[in-house]
Amino acid sequence: MAETCAAIEDVLVEAGREHELILVDDPAKLAAVAKSTVEKAQARNGVVVMGGGDGSINTVAQAVLGSGCPFGILPQGTFNLFARAHGIPLDTAEATRILLGNKAEAVDIGLVNDQVFLVNASLGMYPQVLQDRETWKAKYGRNRVVAFLAGILTLLQQHRQVHMTTLEKDGKPGHIRTPTLFVCINDYQLRETGILTDEESLAPGRMMAVTVRPLSAMGLLWLMICGTLGKLGEAENIVSFEFEDLSITRAGNFSTRTVRVAADGELFWLSLPLEFRISPQPLYLLKPDTASIAISESSISKAA
After folding, report:
1. Could you tell me if 78 and 44 lie in one domain?
2. Could you tell me if residue 88 is left (phi over 0), alpha (psi between -120 and 50 degrees) or otherwise beta?
């Protein structure tokens, strides 16, 4: 942590930028700190920056959305899917320099009811996977191997829980029977798992829903392996579709009124119906200039 703070300070001091570095040791206090930080940024015509993983960035983005403040991120998590999707480097010093020399770009983000998600949101088995994964990480450390093993254990224990969902997609009613419903707004993750090819991307204003047909524990385990290998789109028991608006009117048993939802790895209890949609207000994200990146890549190709 000290090394990370020093890298940020060095870049900002060298650039002569006024700044305030706030360390949050208790995750339970992050939302309150984010709210006060946004208020300070508004008063000073400043920028709000968050250093952390996708879940922590989500919490701060919730406070930033609609404030008019530009938002910067310094990826410090396990997967950093939001940063990767927008070309933000994982090196702290490089990511900090991006905050200095680039304009904020409007970025679509997802909402489930009023809860922000920058990468994905889900219900059914996947939130249980995340909860078990956090328990394992607390015991054995935060890394991808631990996350993968925790997922395997959850699938073996929870595979008989079948999730019943009544939905309305883009105004058309439907029904699915699935262990989990996964909604993604992040092209990078969809490509990494093989739902999209390297040449494909989501259309502006649209998201992707991914469901799984009811399977045995071994069948679910195989799908997990396919996702890790980037072959999930080829699996016959995966059903995916794009949408603009998705409404979940019933989930689980008939008496259910609230549903556990995972948004960017954080768990929430939300009331039915669940409304998935693109936020009418974009997030103004400080990110690399895509035109400059394209020119650089072209120059590299010619030199090669």
Report:
1. yes
2. beta
